[in-house]
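[job 0412] stage=complex_fold ligand=zinc ion status=START
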Amino acid sequence: MRTVKFSRSRTYYYNYNLNKSKLDFAINLGVRKSMKTGFFWDEHCFWHSGGDFSFTLPIGGFVQPSVSESYPENPETKRRLKNLLDVTGLLKELDVKSAAPVTFEDLLRVHPKQFLLEFKDLSDKNGGSFGHLTPFLKGGYEIASLSSGLAKEAVFSVLKNENKNSYALSRPPGHHCLPDFPNGFCLLANIAIAVEAARAEKLTQRVAIVDWDVHHGNGTEAIFFDQPDVLTISVHQERCYPLDTGFAGDIGKGLGINYNMNIPLPPGGGHALYLEVMERLILPKLKSFKPDMIIIACGYDAAAIDPLSRMLATSETFGQLTKMVMNAADDLCDGRLVMVHEGGYSEVYVPFCGHRVMQELSGSSITAEDPFKTVFEMRQPSERVQKFHTELITELHDLFF
Ligand code: ZN
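[job 0412] stage=complex_fold status=DONE, emitting structure tokens
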């Protein structure tokens, strides 16, 4: 065990069981703040497709093709987010990069060989689907590997001090993918692959993953369920997807007990509920865990008009949550914060939520005014309902702490 001391306005000590060459990432927070935010994206990820669907239904029989309601996980939400950053000029303030696909060795740290070979074989032919809600076309394996590659490079860029923090616009998403079972639009476990690649390089030891996608991060949970050095936290709409996971009593197993935290919320929760959950449940858990980096599974499907959930978060909710985790990262791990894109299915609203997050991450003054701000604020839960939410959080707090 080695103690590292370095000066700044406050003196910080970091204990890493690592050799000196791997300690280079422990830098002054002020230096980190002067770096740019990394933004990792690749047009090829937008070319992932599951084929012709009307919503989640394959076209055929009585299911008519639909122009307006294509497969929920489609490129538009992501492409429009990137386009909005371009149009407002915020993209110019970011360090915009692509990445190499992850290697087979990277994948093998999380997924069994047989799973990968089956996926590759189908992908080399004409595509297909295995698992649940995970159709892909020819070449889907390579695109999914690139999506994981964006997450990996976003993590490495922060750990190697190339960026102060970073965002990976990964697609397809990853947080539902189990080691041997793709599901919920997720073909590879992007964040887990990135974490294990960084741990294999001894760039990090204790990682906290906070998943605020509206659906339960069941894949990430399963992969790290018995591990005490990766804290997994998921806040989600109860029984939205999957139906049979994400319960508050699922706190880990073996050495991993108390290193998994599920915060299931009733439908209809909005801005105040999410901020209270962060303040009273997530931040204290992060503080007690003392991570050396924080990764956010950043979905925007808790937003008020998302077609796949029934929550009432706004772009400002995501902005405030970002600010709160940035402060936690500054206090706990020298500002090391990475966001990896997950869900969010409103083509028109995801860009405004994502822009608000990128503005906060980068510290930019460039804004994209939220055209739904007034109407979504009017729809927030009443005081009476908020009181019920506070009682619910108290109940969860008593369970966890
Ligand atoms: Zn989701």
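Confidence is low (pLDDT under 50) at residues 1-24.
[job 0412] exit 0
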